[in-house]
Specification:
Length: about 350
């Protein structure tokens, strides 16, 4: 029985070691915050798309009663440059996961090309590029409590690297499609696998598409969408299937929705009967939001619906925002990401 118990611990430990090593230095993590009126976090081409400049702050945390629980904070701003077709933006973030942490800042330039004859009909192709610095840290100061270990330095290791994100977006009336390559350059970072080799390929390929359906009155809008992600270094893939409902009001907009994330890659483990089983990462995320005049509030909760999990608690995420410098509505569409 004791050996079986040790085997369970070994398999679970390997699972979490692989998971945390693969995600500890990926740059800005990919969660569901893009669904809370914040596609710019994933796609630099979305900077300045809206009729208003946008400021968005997000905070995400799991396991409130744990000192080193995973958490993420982001601050982003983007706006058009005057009445031109160009836009600028900036993102700063801090991501902590146990003894790993990373923080970074990006600056963005985007340009929007209008194909339609006038601004009444939305037919636009956008390009964007973000460049920034990411600092990785690994705190080993408490790792030597049990005595000397030659492979542990016992210090706070850190490394700072430069990286680039590039993307494009196409929007035609109520249809949209986005694609981007995040972390285009290799970063050495500070994490090493069991062979002592640095994990430095952080490239992630993202693609999103969706369509907005409107009711006859235009007060209700329905938006199904998907987001596909592929991580080049680890060959991980996952898909978000999303559905949002919007209600237009005199003071702004109310929305709610549901997102389901499913990984195409599994991890094996031993169940209580010593049978080898496999499970794939699954997240269910309900979300709600409110836009009141120029202010935005949104909340989502991500629950991991797997058989083997470290904790039954989920991720709470809060988004606060403010719209500024709003211009006259130019496009004849119900698109909430534009208006």
């Amino acid at each position: 029985m004791f050996m079986d118990f040790k085997r369970h611990i070994l398999y679970i430990s390997l699972f979490f070691y692989t998971f945390f090593s693969a995600n500890a230095q990926e740059g800005l993590p990919i969660y569901s915050d893009y669904l809370t009126d914040n596609y710019y976090l994933l796609y630099p081409s979305m900077a300045g798309v809206s009729n208003c400049g946008k400021v968005r702050m997000t905070g995400r945390k799991q396991w409130f009663d744990h000192e080193k629980a995973p958490e993420l904070q982001t601050l982003s701003v983007n706006t058009r440059i005057g009445d031109s077709r160009s836009a600028i933006g900036a993102i700063v973030f801090n991501d902590t996961n146990g003894y790993h942490s990373q923080s970074g800042a990006y600056l963005t330039y985007a340009h929007h090309i209008l194909f339609s004859r006038s601004e009444l009909d939305l037919d636009m192709l956008s390009f964007g590029i973000s460049a920034g610095m990411i600092q990785y840290k690994l705190d080993e100061t408490s790792f030597l409590a049990g005595g000397f270990d030659p492979i542990i330095a016992g210090i706070e290791q850190s490394a700072t690297d430069f990286n680039i994100d590039f993307g494009f977006s196409y929007q035609y009336l109520e249809f949209y499609a986005h694609a981007s390559i995040k972390n285009l350059l290799n970063n050495d970072g500070i994490n090493f696998n069991e062979q002592g080799l640095s994990y430095n390929n952080l490239r992630t390929y993202l693609f999103s598409t969706g369509y907005l359906f409107s009711s006859g009155s235009g007060d209700w809008n329905f938006e199904p969408s998907i987001m596909f992600a592929y991580k080049d270094g680890t060959q991980e893939t996952f898909l978000d299937t999303n559905f949002k409902v919007y209600r237009e009001t005199d003071f702004g907009r109310i929305w709610g929705g549901l997102s389901y994330r499913r990984s195409f890659d599994g991890a094996e483990y031993l169940n209580n009967s010593n049978q080898v089983k496999a499970q794939k990462l699954q997240y269910i995320t309900p979300l709600i939001g409110l836009e009141y005049n120029s202010f935005v509030f949104a909340y989502n909760y991500s629950y991991q619906s797997n058989s083997v999990v470290f904790d039954n608690g989920g991720y709470h995420q809060l988004t606060l925002g403010f719209n500024f410098g709003c211009r006259k509505e130019r496009y004849d569409c119900e698109c909430p990401w534009i208006k």
